[in-house]
Amino acid sequence: MHAPRATPTLLPGDDETIVAPATAPGRGAVALVRLSGARAMTIARALGAFGGVHGAAAVPRHATLSTLTHPESGGQLEQALVTWFAAPRSYTGEEVVELAVHGGVVSPSLVVAACLAAGARMALPGEFTRRAVMHGRMDLVQAEAVADLVDARTRAMQRLALSQLDGGLSRRLLALRDDVIHLDALLAYDIDFPEEDDGPIAPARIADAVSTLRTALEALLRTAPHGALVRDGVLVVIAGPPNAGKSSLFNALLGEARAIVTAIPGTTRDAIEALLDRPSLPLRLVDTAGIRDTTDALEQLGIEVSSRYVGQAQVVLACGATDADVQHTVQALQEHTEGVVIPVRTKADVGESAVVLQVSAERGEGLEQLLAAVDAAAVQVLPADGANDALLTRERHRVALQVALDEVVAFEDAWSAGALPAPVAAVHLLAAREAISELIGSVDIEDVLDRVFRDFCIGK
Length: 460
What we know:
Blueprint: E1 18-21, E2 30-36, H1 40-46, E3 64-69, E4 76-85, E5 96-102, H2 106-117, E6 121-122, H3 127-134, H4 140-151, H5 155-165, H6 168-192, H7 203-221, H8 224-232, E7 234-239, H9 246-254, E8 272-276, E9 283-287, H10 297-312, E10 315-320, H11 323-334, E11 340-345, H12 367-380, H13 395-417, H14 422-440, H15 446-453
Parallel strand pairs: 1-6, 7-9, 7-10, 10-11
Antiparallel strand pairs: 1-2, 2-5, 3-4, 4-5, 8-9
């Protein structure tokens, strides 16, 4: 579902045909070079695609094997599979030609250079997706989902990005904007046509509509913490005294040696982080310095860092080599965290224990049970709306929705108190509608577009 858009204002260069590699550089079987713009087919034919300038008519969305040549020297460049996507049924909404060439560095570079020689311009980072937004092929939230999909490091982030690319969040936002417009229309009718046959709009009807709108905005805003957890991971801190096997457990959970492990107490002087992909939510795993009294200034700094992480954690693994160590660690940590504290005996291969969760990093015992317990604890920290796929995943989303909510609340207060004339109170509804419209990109605000596409990769 695409947001209705005003006619876009073209920036300088928006009418030019752009080119860029659409695949990452390096050794590979295939590389993709993408052209977009009014002259995409002309430039492609200048390189010999589809049989050259006098070749046969191309068929949209059909790959054609072509021998590419340089438009100036006539020298052979490549054999490529060339596909034409006719406007507006293309990624950008413009004429698009994709040239699938052999991978590596040389072939795609030569093809890009030849396109430039034929009149194309090198694309800016994110310019293909920006053009897709400008031509109504997607809204800004969906464009951000494209970037999230490319940058996704976990399955949860990839699933959420796909949902947003499919328009899940966009539909929710459009529904909210429609609710604002409906409320504004009720108010306008009451102001402009108070003596119509239907009579004035009952104040209770407007009060109910604004209450429903406020509730919906608040519900969507409550998803921001869940979106942050999906994007950044649930903070899981491994804490305990020195030589409790924390670094060994950290390495075992990751399946690689990231932390230095020795028998010398105080080896870990700083927090070490890694992202662990899990089916439900990613885990931001942190190995911390052993907590103890020490006169070593450097070690003390590490302990202070550990304490800060413990205070921020959603889940804390209270580690100890013995039952007594585990019990002491749990009691000490519970005073410094609001997260879920999970007792873990780290040396299951040594002696008997009454601790439920026992692991042996050396033998790999108990790791799956521990991860299952962490997954369950991670779900506990989700907000009530955690099961919803329409999540706010960026600060830009949260700020815009908060502005809209504040304006709706201001209107509700003014309306219920009768403190302002209806036309003046309606200004708050206009501001709420503009905040949501800016979020989905249905108003032409160039600095917003610049912020969104600033960190995109070339060719996307």
